[in-house]
Amino acid sequence: MAHDAPQATGPSKLVIRNIGLILSGALEKPILDGDTIVAENGKITAIGRFKDLDTEGATTIVEANGTTVAPGLIDSHVHPVAGDWTPRQNQIGWIDSNLHGGVTTMISAGEVHMPGRPRDVVGLKAMAIFAQRAFWNLRPGGVKVHAGAPVIECEMVEEDFRELAAAGVKLLGEVGLGGVKDGPTARKMVGWARKYGIQSTIHTGGPSIPGSGLIDKDVVLEADTDVVGHINGGHTALPDDQIRCICEGCKRGLEIVHNGNERSALFTLRIAREMGDLHRVILGTDAPAGSGVQPLGILRMVSMLSSLGDLPAELAFCLATGNTARMRQLDCGLIEVGRSADFVIMDKAQHSPGKNILESVQLGDLPGIGMTIIDGIVRTQRSRNTPPAGRVPEVVAK
């Protein structure tokens, strides 16, 4: 298991050449023209045709062999605790396993599975700051885990949010997993969080862990969090009319998760498309959870929404990359100059009936992952979790 990920020790230049397909992560232009990407010191510096780009002086050259390069996948909803261990399933290495599923960035929705999680204000603030610091210093396998998401309690005052923000906390855990379960209190605290630059998410649907409860459309709409967490339930979803009311009644992010109701996920996708609001849809797993850890959870969501939701595969990948990056204000998730050089390199799985990776995904198959790259550094090669790819990239010079 990889704990302390390798870091660049000096100037670096990555060249990925002979790419068959570049998925940008952006809904407005999901496919880019080009066969080469150049990144220097962890940032993308050029995208285009090999003959037109400056590829001299590369410290690492990846021969893509006609495979597909996409932004590293982003899991918008996870519950980390300590390093790469989860007490919910007593499992070690779950983050590294997700890296083998193409996930290069994770967003905490609260460190709620911490044994003995404090509920008093001093304790919950201390735990949030600890988690933020710990995952800033430790990146399992290189994965960027944005953690330190306190679960709000009724005793909190505005000064608590100011202190958290000053200490570097940028997220709230799911509203509704603590003592705050009513709309007016939630809205007040969400407003304080927003004032100090802290992004908020709300639990949506039936209870998931002891202490949580039903959060229905009225609470969701009144709380006005930045993201409607697992709108398809975690696990139990709201009725269709309430989901529609949430989609139509706010303009916030609509998060669909793997550990939720699949039918409700497809219903949410359909409503968002009817409204012309596909940009509001982001993807998460809500893992670790009672149903376990799903290293391929984000890939499975992309495949399900594409195949059963009749969404072109290149757009489905945007929900797991660029949409989340823009909503979460991250510098990854899009293949564009200046962004972090975080990539997943894939091809259609061997023996898939699809003619290419996009058709394969739209038929419901998962792609085979051949490599992940974070900050311009190769982190994994052939995935131990996905089906074998038809073609695989290789490092030819370093």
From TrEMBL:
One of its GO terms (cellular component) is cytosol. It comes from the Bacteria. GO terms for molecular function: hydrolase activity, acting on carbon-nitrogen (but not peptide) bonds, in cyclic amides. Residues 263-376 form the Amidohydrolase-related domain. Its cofactor is Zn(2+). This is Enamidase.
